[in-house]
């Protein structure tokens, strides 16, 4: 199989041909959630983006080790080095142990991801399970002269690091600009510079989550966690690191600095970032209070929602935009996605019923080439979906007898649909609210209606139609019998 995947590397700011460090093995690390609340629509985007990448890499026969972490300690309010731990704050408000909060919301996150048909990573490490490794990495950074201790806390010396390396190479920021645009904040006076960041923080007396170390009883810095866990499971150098655009600075910038300071080399070859989901042009996030949880989306229980939206509708909505483009939430966009998904999946059912003829008048080879070209071009899912709707057009034309397809091309079209719609895009049929109405049962009822019409029992036929319509079943009479769809 040709492996022509091109991806946009945030580090070099250009598209590059993907070439693994140790082909056919691929190391993929993605920043996972901080589990102190229910996952929202913004959390769904990186999960689906990198699920698409993971699925396609596996389709290309790479042996992928996919690591997605759970942040359960050290992520303080406002992403700062001071303040209350987000999980500890939730635990205090709910009068729970912090790890009760972690387990509850981790379980909820997994349920949401399963509903969205997001594949589980190969490894899902928790920051709290890697305290020793984080301390060891902090020690290496100190030994190499890029960190310092103050009152039991360890800080990364950005200015010292920048003398030998380029701090800001990922985000494009210059240290001189950071120096002129930052100010000394209350509680940060123990740092040499305000832009230095914590590798280890001495815990204040009221801080719940703490561990012993040679420096103090404390907890790791948020940035250090990902550097430690990624290199532990993928090696000092690995292929792809992914996450949301909001993590590019300072989180991922700090990861590059830490790994380089500890190991003498950068750990990541390709940096990939998905863009944000917005509401009225503003980033969706818990800190801004403008988020819609996935549970609310699925149930419709939110003031901004006109109706519930199924997990597959949400997945398709996200895939309709390129991962590096922003996606603005609206009911109209979700409802359009719902209709598009329904048409795509319905065509898949019709495809299975098509009968091959001796000749073909459709070009399946060109369609297949177009599909691969789009997904190879930096995972361009909206263009891929456009080509798949060309396949939908073919399917309906063949069904109506306006185009023909032979056995070889029909099998190729079925394989193409399975590969791209179900395996790579990860779309699937969903159980509807009318789950008691199975396809076989509806077919049987409509067959009885057909018999009633043949017997001129139009009253019974009309009653069957009316009752099924109430249940969301749309019926269309045809010359060969009937067709139906479930709304």
Overview of the molecule:
It is a single chain. The chain has 487 residues and is α/β, with parallel strands linked by helices. The chain has three domains: 20-274, Rossmann fold (3-Layer(aba) Sandwich), CATH 3.40.50.620; 279-424, Isoleucyl-tRNA Synthetase, Domain 1; 439-486, no CATH class. The protein is 45% helix and 14% strand. The protein is built from 16 helices and 15 strands. α8 (248-263) links the parallel β9 and β10 (268-274). α12 runs parallel beside α14 (407-424). The mean pLDDT is 92.
Secondary-structure topology with pairs:
Blueprint: E1 6-9, E2 14-17, E3 25-30, H1 41-59, E4 63-68, H2 86-94, H3 98-115, H4 131-143, E5 147-150, E6 153-156, H5 158-164, H6 175-181, E7 197-202, E8 218-220, H7 222-234, E9 238-244, H8 248-263, E10 268-274, E11 277-279, E12 282-283, H9 294-299, H10 311-319, E13 327-328, H11 331-353, H12 364-376, H13 381-399, H14 407-424, H15 439-454, H16 458-470, E14 473-478, E15 481-486
Parallel strand pairs: 3-4, 3-9, 9-10, 11-13
Antiparallel strand pairs: 1-2, 5-6, 6-7, 7-8, 11-12, 14-15
CATH superfamily of the largest domain: HUPs
- Which range does the strand content fall in? 5-15%
Report the uncertain regions: none
Widest β-sheet, arrangement of strands: 4-3-9-10
Q: What's the CATH C level of the largest domain?
A: Alpha Beta
Global shape: elongated
| Integer tally of domains | 3
Counted beta strands: 15
Average of the residue pLDDT scores: 92
What is the count of helical runs? Answer: 16
CATH architecture of the largest domain: 3-Layer(aba) Sandwich
Q: Supply Rg.
A: 27 Å
* Main pleated sheet: 4 strands, parallel
Distance between the termini: 39 Å
Measured as a percent range, the helix fraction is 40-55%
Structural class: alpha/beta
- Assembly type of the shown chains? single chain
